[in-house]
Amino acid sequence: MTPNFAVIGVHTPAWQMPRLWIPLFLLWIPVVLLSPIIFLVLVAIAIAARTNIWRLIALFWNFLSGLPGTDIHVSAHGNNVLVRIL
Amino acid sequence: MNENRRQILEMLSTGKITADEAERLIAALESGPATSAGTSAAAATGSAAAAVKTRAKYLRVLVEADQEMTGLKGPTSVNVRVPMQLLRAGVRLASLIPVQAHQQFDEAMNKHGVPLTLSQIRPENLEELVDHLEDLTVDVNGSDANNTKVRVFCE
Question: pTM of the entire structure?
Fold first, then answer.
């Protein structure tokens, strides 16, 4: 499954940002609109890498599908940064 | 008949576990005494699923360092969870590196003292590496005044 939401949180001693829920599924709208350009870019990459375009699409799709569950939490100097992909 | 094996067969006959689960439990029983003890205990509790080793889903990297180590005020911690599926997809992307770039990469790595031949690394080798990561646990604790802790494991 492709990522649906990204949660971003930044917390400093002086300022606390409310957690941002970014709806990544809405990115499908520009992706669909730009799909001819994206396809041309993928064809160019496939030619440069001397690989099959469908294999390339499968690779990127696998990568995209692997993103949900990624969780990064860094805390330093009293600052906290959280990035979570759901 | 072995007592553990009898227990598994009884569980199969009473329908507590499926034939597939029973087969896996017996295979685990035969693989070694160390694991069979744990397997039979799990079977005795009726939790067949617990006895069958589940595949790790995430790679966790935990780093904790104190202010003496980082020079920053207060402790520093990094907690990263990466899905194994993402790692597998990532290593497959390595196959996109153009062949003509391999030599340049090898030369650059050799220059920095890392004798690596990229063309000899196949995607299946990398996937095998990711599969074996599940058994890896790195636990580093700093000594004396250095309180840095690093843990890398799969869950």
Answer: 0.66
